[in-house]
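Exercise 7b. Backbone tokens:
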């Protein structure tokens, strides 16, 4: 009886061993160019700053659920990221307070 599946290696009795290097060579793929290009402006030394551009850090805050939902809705409506919305809100808050007096209270 003839094999209706033809020469499909997925259905052969003895699977061929896959050689990634030979396949890259056959497809003329440069292994150095595989994946996302590295961004050399990223800080890679401290854990919280890993993968972030210079001048940025990660922080975790606890906020009321309703406040977070309002921020998410605003971000969605304005087509902004949460990062942008939180930064805008913090900038507005900081602009409205006297930061010089805060430095003297430490």
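Sequence design result:
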């Amino acid at each position: 009886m003839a094999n209706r599946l033809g020469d499909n290696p997925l259905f052969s009795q003895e699977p061929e061993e896959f050689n990634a290097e030979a396949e890259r060579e056959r497809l003329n793929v440069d292994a150095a160019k595989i994946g996302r290009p590295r961004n050399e402006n990223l800080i890679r030394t401290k854990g919280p700053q890993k993968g972030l551009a210079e001048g940025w850090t990660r922080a975790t805050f606890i906020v009321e659920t309703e406040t977070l939902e309002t921020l998410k809705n605003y971000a969605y409506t304005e087509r902004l990221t949460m990062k942008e919305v939180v930064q805008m809100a913090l900038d507005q808050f900081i602009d409205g307070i006297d930061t010089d007096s805060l430095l003297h209270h430490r």
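Instructor comment: The chain has one domain: 12-104. The two ends are 88 Å apart (CA to CA).
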